[in-house]
Amino acid sequence: MYGIKDVLAPANEEGTRATILKWCKAVGDLVVKDEPLVELETDKVTVEVPAPASGTLIEVLKPESAEVSPDEVLARLRLPDESTPSKESKAPTAAAKTQNSRGSANTRTDSELLSPSVRRLLHEHDIAPGAINGTGRNGRVTAQDVTRHVSQATHVSASTEVSPATQVSAATRDPSALVPHTAIRRRVAEHMVRSLGEAPHVTTLFEADLSRVLKHRASHAESFESRGARLTLTVYFISACVRALRMHPEVNATFRQDAMELHGDVNIGVGTALGDKGLIVPVIHRAQQLSLFEIAQRLLQAVEAARAGKLSPQDVRGGTFTISNHGVGGSLLAAPIVINQPQVAILGVGKVQRRVCVIDVDGSESIAVRPMCYLTLTIDHRALDAFQANAFLALIVETLEQWPDTAEALQD
Length: 412
Fold this sequence. Notes:
By secondary structure, the protein is of the alpha+beta class. It folds into three domains: 3-100, CATH 2.40.50.100; 116-171, Dihydrolipoamide Transferase, CATH 4.10.320; 183-401, Chloramphenicol Acetyltransferase (2-Layer Sandwich), CATH 3.30.559. The chain is built from nine helices and 19 strands. The chain has helices at 92-100, 116-125, 143-161, 164-171, 183-198, 211-226, 233-247, 292-307, 386-401, and strands spanning 3-8, 18-23, 30-31, 36-41, 46-50, 55-60, 67-68, 73-79, 201-209, 253-255, 260-262, 268-270, 272-273, 279-280, 283-284, 321-324, 345-349, 353-361, 364-380. The strands form five sheets. Strands 9, 12, 15, 16, 17, 18 and 19 form a seven-stranded mixed β-sheet that branches. Helix 2 packs parallel to helix 3 and helix 7 (233-247) packs across helix 8 (292-307). The protein starts with a strand and ends in an 11-residue tail after the last helix.
């Protein structure tokens, strides 16, 4: 007798849904325990699901692009009969392929090879699947293949049906195209709408003089670089937030209907752009225990892993506060920045810009040019009030402007 083993979507604390990104094996293939079987994409990371046992993949229940929930059955494996010689164990492979060719999501029929988004595009443009040469894995037709085919057809139609006088203007018009959302983009959209729907957002704005931070960075950046860390301005903002969060624990918290949960660890997430794919927030865990160099090291590792798609689920979980350094893209001010629920606040950092300021010199006012940046704190007004927000942000500004006198994480 052969045993059957279910392949389950991995469980997670948040109950986050995922999307089938790619099957690494086809029905009928032999698999070895712990080798990659399927890739899932969540709003945060791409996760490989390993085979839970060695055997034969006999059924795929969820096709590529399908959404799945934690612990949902994705596929089934037939386990080998230990009493049967290994050569005979391969016999069911052909039968499994024949049986599943009638209904499996991974068999090679024109309709079942297609993801839901591709089927929708084909239906909208009245295109037969066989009319397009697929460029995806094993010749699979992708959404990009469909939009490319529509674009080419539009140009051909324009050049053959319009008069010569209008051919040039028609050919220069770019056709519109439907680009299916990635799983990350869909989840980010859902998360943002839910955050704004649940939490009343209020933003306070301060301005910080980064003269002393930039001076410290200039004298330490080369040393950090030689030891494998990059001393960016974000490193200083993380360190300043550590000090402020320890002195204002109500900001390092989660709002619950019956109480405020004040977190013991300071786990700071840093918003990281992934181009057109969306945004991800890797977390620097227990930042209160790290020196400035260690923060720089962790941040570099997290950002590089995020952009390479190599973050693990643990790398994006457990954040208690978030920094959005939108200034790296040239933005001076962004408000409100949507809170990363279930946190109660998020810091926004604008572009550093040299501006004319009035400063105090020995009790007298003077005009000077200083490197300034706008800092915003957007709060969940259910959890925090303006007084608390202003006190927290004022402490961050003080830490930055008096650097390193007020810094707590400078040990190398």
